[in-house]
Design brief:
This protein is of the alpha+beta class. The chain has two domains: 147 residues, no CATH class; 129 residues, 60s Ribosomal Protein L30, Chain: A (2-Layer Sandwich), CATH 3.30.1330.60. Helix 8 links the parallel strand 3 and strand 4. The longest helix has 58 residues. The protein is elongated, with a radius of gyration of 36 Å.
């Protein structure tokens, strides 16, 4: 009886371990599926463009190098997608799509060149045949065919020129897209170094209360360092303007708070002017205690409310458009 119970326990233990193994395996499979490559519209377009180019026999024979470059770019985009790097996936997918289109254009150009060569040979043969014939009618017919061949040759030349223009336009578009992406990434990096917060009004750089003398508008050394960075940024992006807003906590009278917020905004304005920023690119505005970002019932909240916000605006946006 003891042996029976022991065997029964062993069987139950084996069944429990087997069920546990199946559950863990299923979870691992589900987790593996969830971490697969991201779905990306740009990558799908690149795949479709490469597929269309690769299944066209003329592209493989007339532009093998360009088709190979497109495949390499697509492979890089696929790897970026598997790594779940969306920005890199979109950038590489765009390049792969353009290179696939470039391969098709190169193939069309090569076909035009071949057609021109074949038509030239055809024209020579027709003229030779015409010279061998005595009949004026035969000569006239041959000359007509030669004219037709010349017309087709001209049309083929025009088609070649059109293909070349399209290739140049595609290359220009690719270079402009790469330059725009690089500029966007550089701008994001510089704004991050300024600790700017991206809002619908613009990129907000906050100068807190500790950067000013107590209850005064004079900037301390830390505040001057931030204005140095702001001035360098504005010099690098001369088409951007700035709105400088002063804010206080709720302690003190309304008139005192409004005056102090104005003075601190003007202090930042003056510091930027001293660093070479044109006054026409900046406007100051004091709001006093009107727009707190924290409660005024604690010292920590009041300290957050005592601040100057330097709002870096997008190109083409004037400060007046972003007044509260």
């Amino acid at each position: 009886m003891n042996t029976y119970n022991k065997n029964k326990k062993q069987i139950c233990l084996i069944r429990y371990k087997t069920s546990l193994f199946i559950i863990i395996s299923a979870l691992l499979i589900i987790n593996g599926c969830a971490s697969g490559p991201i779905k990306n519209t740009a990558l799908e377009r690149a795949r479709e463009a490469y597929q269309n180019a690769s299944i066209t026999p003329e592209v493989a024979s007339n532009a093998p190098v360009a088709l190979y470059d497109a495949k390499q770019a697509l492979d890089k985009a696929e790897r970026a997608a598997r790594a779940r790097d969306r920005a890199e996936t979109e950038h590489l997918s765009y390049l792969a799509e353009r290179k696939a289109e470039l391969a098709v254009l190169l193939s069309e150009s090569k076909k035009s060149e071949t057609a021109i060569s074949e038509l030239s040979v055809s024209k020579d043969k027709i003229l030779l045949k015409a010279r061998e014939q005595e009949s004026d009618a035969a000569r006239a017919a041959a000359e007509q065919k030669a004219r037709e061949a010349e017309q087709k040759a001209r049309e083929a030349e025009l088609a070649k020129q059109h293909s070349e223009e399209m290739m140049r336009a595609a290359e220009k578009s690719r270079l402009e897209a790469e330059a725009a992406l690089a500029q966007k990434l550089q701008l994001e990096k510089e704004l991050a170094e300024l600790h700017a917060e991206m809002t619908d009004r613009g990129a907000v750089v906050t100068l807190g209360n500790i950067l000013f003398e107590v209850n005064k508008s004079r900037l301390l050394q830390g505040g001057l360092l931030i204005t140095d960075k702001l001035a360098n940024f504005l010099k690098k992006y001369p088409k951007r303007k700035m709105l400088i807003e002063g804010h206080t906590d709720s302690r003190g009278s309304d008139s005192y708070n409004l005056g102090l917020s104005n003075q601190r905004a003007i202090a930042v304005f003056s510091a930027l002017m001293e660093r070479g920023i044109d006054s026409e690119r900046m406007i100051t505005k004091g709001y006093g205690e009107q727009y707190p970002i924290a409660g005024n019932d604690t010292e920590a909240g009041r300290q957050q409310n005592r601040r100057v916000e330097a709002i870096i605006l997008d190109e083409g946006v004037s400060p007046e458009q972003k007044f509260r």
